Structures are given as C-alpha cells and as structure tokens.
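Q: I'm writing a short explainer about L-ascorbate oxidase for a general audience and would like to include a description of its predicted shape. Could you first generate the structure from this sequence?
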Amino acid sequence: MQLHSAVALICATVSLFVIAGAEDPYRFFNWNVTYGDIFPLGVRQTGILINGQFPGPDIHSVTNDNLIINVFNSLNEPFLLSWNGVQNRRNSYEDGVYGTTCPIPPGKNFTYILQVKDQIGSFYYFPSLGFHKAAGGFGGIRILSRPRIPVPFPDPAGDYTVLIGDWYKANHTDLRAQLDSGRKLPFPDGILINGRGPGGASFNVEQGKTYRLRISNVGLQNSLNFRIQNHKLKLVEVEGTHTLQTTYSSIDLHLGQSMSVLFTADQPAQDYYIVVSSRFTNPVLTSTATLRYSNSAGPVSGPPPGGPTIQVDWSLNQARSIRTNLTASGPRPNPQGSYHYGLINTTRTIRLANSAGQVNGKQRYAVNSVSFVPADTPLKLADFFKIDGVYRIGSISDNPTGGGMYLDTSVMNSDYRSFIEIVFQNDEDIVQSWHLDGYSFFVVGMDGGQWTAASRNGYNLRDAVSRCTTQVYPKSWTAIYVALDNVGMWNLRSEYWARQYLGQQFYLRVFTTSTSLRDEYPIPKNALLCGRASGRRTRPL
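A: Of course. Here's the predicted structure. Afterward I'll give you a sentence or two in plain language.
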C-alpha cells in the first residue's frame, strides 16, 4: 500500500503542474478505506471507516488550494468518493460518481486531483456507489477565505463540523439487497450527530465566546431540524454563499444541505442540549448532543427543547428568508452582489417532475418518467473516447411527459455558457431535495401548487441565495437559475438516497466543441479505465 501511495502521489504531483497553477498551495491526503465495527445506535454494525475514523477526517482547505487525495480501497467491493458542493471546475473526471469516474477496484488506489477554485464555505464528501453512504465514509469539507479577503464576521473562538443524518441499524448490504429486490426501505431507526447516537457527541465552549458550527445533513431520507437549548443561531453561510445574518431559534436542513451558524455561549454556565429531530415524519425521530461550558455548574436539565414537526409553512417561510449578503465578499474581494443574475435573460426552461412507481414489478423512481440506470462505462469516458452506444443524448425530455415510467441511461444536453431556468415540480406528498454537481445556482422561487409562467412574477431577482442543493416541498415547486459555465458531465440527483439509487437522477451534459484548456482540462493521466474504455490510453505519461 505504501508503494502504491508513493507512486500515485509522485505521479499526481507531476501531473498537477499541467492541471493547475503552480502558485496555489497543495495539500496531500492519504486515506485508507476499510470496514470496521461501529455501534452508533447501540448495536454492532459494519461501518465504512477512513483511516480508522467514523465519520471520516475533515478536509481543511483555503480558496484555490489543490487537494491531492490518495484513496486506497481496502473494501471487498468497488468504491468511489464524491465531493458534495466542490465544483471541480473544468474537471468533471474527478467528480467521483459513476457517470464520470471508474470505481476504485478492491485492493487498489486512486489519487483524486481536486482544486477548490474560487470557492469558500462548508461542504462534505461521501461514498457514491452501492448504498455505501448508509455505512459511513463521509466527512466534512471546509474552504476558508484567503487571508486578504474580508469575511463578514469576526473569527470565531472555535469552528466545529457537525454532521447530522438519519440512520439504520441494518448494514448497508442488507439495505441495498432490499432495494435491489424491488422493495422500499423502512423508516430509519435513529439520528446520528457526528457518528454518535443520542447523548454521544459533545462540544466544549467557553462562556462569552462565539463559535461557528458547519452543519451538514448527510442522512438518507429525512429533513432535519437543528437547535440548541436556550441559544440563538445566526446564519452566516450556506454552501459557499455568505448570507444575510438572520437569527433563528432553530433551523431546517434538508437532505444534502450544508450551512454555517454562529452562536454565543451567553447563558448561565452549565450543560445544554443540542437537538436534532426529523421533519414532516410520524413518528418524529430525535437525537441529542451536549453543549458543555468549560465552567459548567451541572449537567443538562429538563426535557430537550421541542421544535417544529410537520409544519411546512414554517419551513417554507424560513427558506424564503435565507438570502445572499450582497455587500459581503465571497471567494474574491468583490461583493457577492456584483453578479446581477436577475438582469440576465434565460435561454431555456427545463421542468423536472419526480415520480414513484414500479417497473417490471420493482420499486423505481424517475425524473420526467425516466428511471436512470447506470451504463457499463462512465458517460464522461464514453464522450472522451467517442464510444457509441453507451448513452443517447436527449434520452430525457425537457418537460414532464405524463407517460409511464421506463428505464434508460438519461442524459440531457445543454450548451456551454447558456443561462437557464430549471423548475422542480413535486406532485408527491413528501419533501424532495435536489443536488447539482459542478455548480451553484440561484434559488429564485418556491411555492405550493403547480408552476406556471405567471409564477415568475414572484421570483426573487435580487438577493436569492446561491447554493448547490435545494428542497421542494410537498405538492410544490422550486425554481432555480443557473449559468452553465462549467463544461462536463454533471449529476443532477435526488438526495433522498434510496430514490437516487433507484433512478431519480440523470446527467446534465454541458458541452462545447472547444478543446481549449480554458474550457475543460484533459482526462487525468491517472484516470482509471473500465467498461468499454478498458485498455485504452488516457494521455502519455
């Protein structure tokens, strides 16, 4: 393994000077992915560990850093990591989903070469294949601003990653077998906070000081509400955008979403509950952690504070209140509001409707009636090597068809540098959560009922939040604007993980005929090749 790592890192380092500017720093990570026993809900399970850790180690970086992550797969099945919110500008080969990247075979390694170009904020990584996410393998990603770029709040006294998510006591292999056999999964068994069950995690603070929490919902099925007993939460960042600093008593995070809040330890010195509970469910799942003052006079007392449960309007109104801080800097010194997205004409409207149903007697989920099935070769490699028959452009419609559900490897073509509107229409009675790899988009509107052209009259064209994951409430719609400025093959998926696994996803192919490095990097020299791309050459070493 050490030889593999050394060779990979040397190759990666040499390659990097072709890929990224040598002036930006490099950070090197060596990760060994293994199975291990974990007991988050009091029963033994097989978890996926990274360097023996569950959850995996945090990635700390600064805007424009190059991240060289050597991943050795010590599992007995293929494995990939993906980087939720990292845009991999001009380089979808590194995205770590099956449409872009060949799986790492058991006993082998692969070195990811990422650059967090023009990004700041709070994100996470996760395993993208085989329902591995239900076993762990996830961890936090933080991208700090460069030293001379102003941040719209003072440095906090501490900066914590908080990974929350619903969880099953069953092993991921059992859950996957249920899905493969065409059955739905049962309701989850509990909620984890940083890999621990109720009462397991704790956070230490000093009285009078202010702290940052980078919270991500890395769960499988449910929206979650986060709160701290007797403390207010000030929202400051959502998936790379500095927000208006609104104060909340509790905050909803839908599947796949990340955000940063500040809180001040301004209460009498004792221990307090941190509470995470499921939204829109019956029963309500609840878990707790402990906020521990350094001079605490005693343990937590009383019942954990309650939060919102099934109220959709409460969540919708909170979502609409999350807005971009137009005067704050983002990853660059210019204000975030200097990009006037509301003045740009859209050139295309894509309407996407999710649905549930059965195909060949098995449970499936679809987008515009197409339930995605992976091809035998990553789609991006099929493009690069010009391999016919792997997928069809136009295999998914721009609009709901109203027809019966069917299986296909759905790819939607789009033009590089176009500015488009996407409307997510949710006619089902559960919350949906959608994520687009490679991009941030402006969440310009959300409301109940059916979207129509008249719905545009209510769009926020001034300070809508820019993020990469958005919710769609039951029997409702959400509209986004996105500038397609990142060439590649990009996964647009449900973050409800069983739905993603059973077909609620497709790939948006952002295409240009240009071969300039300004538009897209060449295939990595160390790219793994599989399927119909096996035996071909990437580039001369």
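A: For your explainer, you could say: Residues 1-21 have pLDDT under 50 and may be disordered.
Q: Perfect, that's easy to follow.
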